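chain below, 370 aa
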Amino acid sequence: MKIASVEALRMRAPKVELKADGTQEVLVVRVTTDTGLVGHGEAVSNATVAKAIVDAPMSAPFRHGLGVVLVGKDPCDPEARWQDMYEATRWYGRRGAVMHAMAAVDTALWDIAGQAAGQPCHALWGTRRTRVRAYASVLFPPTLREGAELAERCLAAGFSAVKFGWNGFGADEAWDHAMLREIRRVLGDDVALMVDVGRVWTADEALRRAPRLIGAFDLLWLEEPLHEDDIDGYRRLTAAVDGRIAAGETEETEEFFARMIAAGVRVIQPDVGRCGGLTVARRIASMAHAANVWCVPHCFGTGVNLAASLQWMAAAEDAPFNEYPLTASPLRNDLVIGLPRLVDGWVEVSTAPGLGVALDETVVRRFTVA
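prediction:
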């Protein structure tokens, strides 16, 4: 079996707004073999840039596009193909959008490897569980009433853990506390609550505000209060607060996650569509397990990203949670056929071969742009 084509599908909503929802524009990579098997993966990136990296032609050494490197090679050895992609892009890659594009291709290859073996991806690595606890992931609404209503929706859907984030949180301390009081009132004491600050505070601000938030609202974790490059700030913050600090959704490399763990971050959040795909995500989870740190996938993309994250968590040493986004988006909610089922706050991991999902071609045609 050989790789016959690597196709980058850039899909975009008719209107893209300046809001914290990356599924307004997405890049899904489709890899097809000469035997007709098709695998999918998602790049969580700038879709236009990532598509160019997949589509670029052969160039000078270490400057090639991903597709031209892979056509004709064995799709059932994703780790070897990952190394092929890394070597072929070293001149302009090793980090950033190249790693995001590689992540999509790598995930698609694991999808094919599972299909070729007639097994879900998690069985290839050794299945440890068949379901993963989900947390509802939502954006802060503009009013307290809407915050209460959104919390009620999460409860009605059966979630036992909820995370609110972004949309102006962190700018006004009085508003932040008023909103969280209303949300906690609705959720009660038994539902876990997390807050994503959205990387807007300085370390000094976080040192002042984080302990109050964590204590007053019994937060399971406080997520990304600082700029992603402020490792020293994270080190200061984690040393000063008792609660869990979470971070890492923007990162690509094992080395950076090791630095975060060393800085005291107790919940690391790799995104399988950014950190190099399932090949790298699995190694990061093992690193976290060895350090007694939670590894919880960042998962705010399409159903491809969700399916891949769940396959990964089904075989990981530990799986405290999987993020489950609830925002309204056709590219999140309608693109994928066979989305894993949510039952009583847990997501059942697919046992179908590969990732266990397919694309709705009607949705693909509706949203694909050049």
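The chain has two domains: 3-119, 123-354. The longest helix spans residues 96-117.
thats it, cya
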